C-alpha cells in the first residue's frame, strides 16, 4: 500500500518526540488560561536554557620556555562560542495550566466511576458539548451551545466529556498521566486537540508531534479502545496563516490512521461555505461551533462512533 505523503516524516517526528520528552527539562509554570478564541491564548514560551557556565578551577601551569614564550602583547585567542540551545517542543512536554486543575480533578472523579462507552477528549470545542448556550441564547445560531445536540445524538450513550476550554496537546498529556487515563474503560475515544497550540507559537510539526504523543498515551492507557482522531477544525478566514497551519497539521496527523486502533476523520470542510469562509451561524466567532455547528459535527461522527463501538 502506498504510504501517505507525510507518514515517514511523522514516524520520524514521533520517534524524536519520545526522545525529546525524555530529555526535556520540567516545564515552567504557565500564565493564566486564556479562552481558545483569543489571538493571545498561548502557553508560556519554552524557557530559554541558561548558558552553561564555563568557569573552570584555576590550576598552576608551567612557565613557557623563554625561547618559545609568546610575546606579552600577543592577542588572546577568541573564546569558542557555545552552540545555541536546542528549541524545546512545549507541545510534547506534559504541562497543565494551574487554572485548569478544578476541571481536571472533576474529570478524575468521573474516571474513578468505572464503565463508559465513549470518551470525549479535547479543548473548549469539546468542552462546550455540555453548554446550553451563552446568555440563554437558543436556536441554531446559539453560540457555544452543544448540549441540545449532545442530548439528541448521544444522550443514550454513556459518555464522559474530558474537554477543558483552553487546553493544549501538552495539557491533555499531563491530564492522562495524572489520573484521567485510569479507571474508565471506554470503547471509543473521540480526540480533537491542537488549535490552542497555534496561539502558543508552536510550529505545525511540533503540534503534530503533540497530537501524536496524546494518541500514543491514549493507546497505552486504553489499549482496548478505538480512537476516532479528528482533524483540527478550521478557524479564522480562508487566507489566514492559522488556516494554512491547521491544514498542514491535519495532513501530518492523518498518517496516524492505522485502520485498526486509530481512525482519522477530517470533517472540517463541512463547516465551510463555498468560498471557504466559516458562516456566523456555524461558528459565531470563527472558532467555536454554534448549535448548528454541533449538529454538523454530530451528524458526521455519529455513524463512525457507533460503528467503532461494535468492533
Characterize the structure shown.
By secondary structure, the protein is α/β, with parallel strands linked by helices. It is globular. It has helices spanning 7-23, 101-111, 124-127, 147-154, 169-180, 195-199, 204-221, 241-253, 291-310; strands spanning 118-122, 159-163, 188-192, 226-230, 262-265. It contains 9 helices and 5 strands. Helices cover 35% and strands 8% of the residues. The two termini are 23 Å apart. It has a 5-stranded parallel sheet, with helices on both faces. Strand 4 (226-230), helix 8 (241-253) and strand 5 form a beta-alpha-beta unit.
Would you spell out the secondary-structure blueprint of this structure?
Blueprint: H1 7-23, H2 101-111, E1 118-122, H3 124-127, H4 147-154, E2 159-163, H5 169-180, E3 188-192, H6 195-199, H7 204-221, E4 226-230, H8 241-253, E5 262-265, H9 291-310
Parallel strand pairs: 1-2, 1-3, 3-4, 4-5
Helix pairs in contact: 1-7, 2-5, 4-9, 5-7, 7-8
What's this, in brief?
By secondary structure, the chain is α/β, with parallel strands linked by helices.
Keywords:
disordered N terminus, single chain, alpha/beta, globular, five-stranded parallel β-sheet, 311 residues, 9 helices
